[in-house]
Amino acid sequence: MSGDVWFTILPDGESGVAAARLLRPWATETIPHHSGRPWLLGSWPDGLVTVGAAGARRVAVIGRCPVTVEALSARAGRLRDIGDVERIAHGLTGSFHLLASVDGSVRARGSASGVRRLFHARVGGVSVAADRSDRLAAVTGAAPDERILAAHLLASPLPYPLDDRCVWQGVRALPSFDCLLIDADGRARTQRWWTPPEPERAWREGVPAVRAALTAAVGACTAGGGTVSADLSGGLDSTSLCFLAAREQERTRPAGARLVTLRWQSLDPENDDAAWAARAAARLPGSEHVTPARDQWPLWYSDLRALTGDAVPTDEPGPWVRDGARMAALCRLMTGRGSRLHLMGGGGDELFSTFPPHLHDYVRRHPLAAYARIRTQRASQHWPLGPLLRQLADRRTFGQWLAAWAQGLTAPQPPSPALVRGAPSTAWGVDLRMPPWATRDAALAVQSLLREAAETAEPLALQRGQHTALACVRTGGRGLRQLDQVTSRSGLGQAAPYLDDQVIEAALAIRVAERSTPGRYKPVLAEAMRGIVPDDVLRRQTKGEYSTDFHAALRHNRAALAELFDGSRLARAGLIDDAAVRASLLGVHPTPEGLRSLSSSLGSEIWLRARPARTRPPTTAITEGAP
Question: Which of 609, 611, 524, 622 has the alpha carbon at shortest distance from 571?
Fold first, then answer.
């Protein structure tokens, strides 16, 4: 199926019927409540939605989940009330939205990572939920929220705690850890459905759960049979997925099972991804391996003009536009070989590496072990002692850190946002800066958002290391969601099994400090893949680096980039100085620091240009005979 994939969720009352009439110009599919009133309206391909029914109870899984109608109906039969949904859903694997309709009440939620999101708004006087915010904006006539657009200049996807803010006025994003409850009268309230695990397991004790969860996640990708494709960069994350996919296809032998891998070549001759990818490919003889020539694979920032107008498929701004030409090439190459789903390794770094903030926790919980680790890492990475000690002595609460971030929002950007005077930052997060082309009004808008958040927001976990991992998982989940919106429009879904809920739970239950150790690269993942990925492939200790590709792409495309900001919509909105953007782009030696926000600003500019054309309903009528 080509075109946008989306759904809306309606209450089981007469008011929901009225709201459905407003949404029908966009919809091609419908699924009713037991009452016969419309429950789900939208457009989706066959196999995306599975509904189980038992009497007046309905349970729906929307997304990637290998559950049959019969099995889901059996689960629905064990449903006592609307508050019982998570119990009967226990054991479902994959990445999906989970919905229920019971005795006039509706319950809906997405996934913990944000790969599956929900939004809600008042439509025709009642609360309606949807997986795309632009569908709700279109039917309510909502305009973009310029404060949130300003925040997208800072980073896109938005960082926590701004990531649960919606870019459309009057449309609310459902927090990833919450579910939405809608009664028959169309009143909505939220409730927590997921709580992050406490990181208490020793790493060796946690390996079997990681192995089982990741195997099930990849199995959910291959269960539908046919051809699936996957990145094979040569890194441990993508390589593990390829071997798991081949193993699951061999074990279950689904109809027409085939694996196609894709590797694009870096322009940096020192990048050793190619050698490791070739070694892995040689051990996957039953798969087809595609490696486009360098001149056949687009550079970043190519063909940007093709992304304006109706060609932008995402419901919120995002930096994916940098990769727009590559996403188009990916779709052509993989769908041309029959792939229905493409696997990528996003989430592996977030789950199986540790971030510097964990040192702040470690030195307080296990000072002797922390001292030994810090001494080893200082020697290898040349951290200056004074700044490091000041970082470790920082006692600010999460709210205090947010307030300080807001205060320093327009300060000069450090050489690396993860470093403070040469030492790693162990704060609650990265103190991102507004880009040099942001206006004073844009900076004030983002400062106001951060200060509001500082008054009420709580960290995602008590430990800084666990909080940082969760925040990065959410950023990765929202990024994958946008890529899936882009490629699904061409018939190729995107999957990142590391971001499935069961994998996140298994990985984050392991003690933060034990997820990586000096001298060993991703030991938890490597041990979990022992016997699945060949030992010689698991021995890799390096990671590819792509700054050469960034600079080559910038040199080749910067004139087109500068031209694109002529007549900028962001400038018209008072959020950027377009002359300053062009000056940064056309400088003799553009620095990575000065252009760190380029992709986010570019994504917001192109998204904003596309908005008027995307708020008109199509002429397509709903499926004949649907209520």
Answer: 609
Q: Enumerate the β-bridge partners of residue 419.
A: 424
- Contact (CB, 8 A) for 145 and 169: yes
Which residues lie below 8 Å from residue 377, measured CB to CB, with a gap of 6+?
A: 383, 518
Residue 210, amino acid: V
User: What is the rounded distance in angstroms from the CA atom of residue 510 to the CA atom of residue 34?
Assistant: 43
- Residue 584 CA to residue 590 CA, distance in Å, equals 6
Radius of gyration from C-alpha coordinates of the chain: 24
User: How many Å is the maximal CA-CA distance in the chain?
Assistant: 72
Q: Are 130 and 418 in contact (CB under 8 A)?
A: no
User: Please, are residues 224 and 45 in contact by the beta-carbon 8 Å criterion?
Assistant: no
3-state helix, strand, coil in the chain (%, to 5): 45, 15, 40
Region for residue 303 given its phi and psi (left: phi exceeds 0; alpha: psi -120 to 50; beta: otherwise): left
Q: Which residues of 82-109 are buried (b: 16+ CB within 10 A; e: fewer)?
A: beebeebbeebbbbbbbbbbbebbbbbb
**Of 364, 356, 383, 347, nearest in space to 467 by CA:** 356
Give the number of residues written for the chain: 627
Walking along the chain (627 residues) 10 residues at a time, the average pLDDT comes out as: 83 93 93 97 95 97 97 96 95 97 96 97 96 95 96 94 96 98 96 96 97 98 95 95 95 88 86 89 94 90 78 87 93 96 96 93 91 87 89 95 95 69 87 93 97 96 96 96 94 96 98 88 95 92 78 89 92 95 80 75 92 48 33
Helix (H), strand (E) at residue 599: helix 598-614
Measure the N-to-C terminal CA separation of the chain; round to a whole number of Å: 23
Distance CA 273, CA 294 (A): 14
The total of other beta-carbon atoms located within 10 Å of residue 509's CB is: 17
| Angle at which helices 464-488 and 501-508 cross, to 10° | 160
Q: What is the DSSP string of 197-234?
A: PP--B-HHHHHHHHHHHHHHHHHHHHTT-SEEEEE--S
CA atoms of 555 and 55, how far apart (whole Å): 63
Q: pTM of the entire structure?
A: 0.94
Write a three-state SS string for 228-278: EEEECCCCHHHHHHHHHHHHHHHHHCCCCCEEEEECCCCCCCCCCHHHHHH
Q: What pairs with residue 494 in β-bridges?
A: 342
Residue bearing tokens 């994504």: 603
Round to whole Å and give the CA distance between 211 and 219.
12
Q: What is the amino acid identity at position 60?
A: A
**Are 10 and 19 contacting, i.e. CB atoms less than 8 angstroms apart?**
yes
CA distance 530 to 564: 49
Determine how many CB atoms are found less than 10 A away from the CB of residue 126.
23
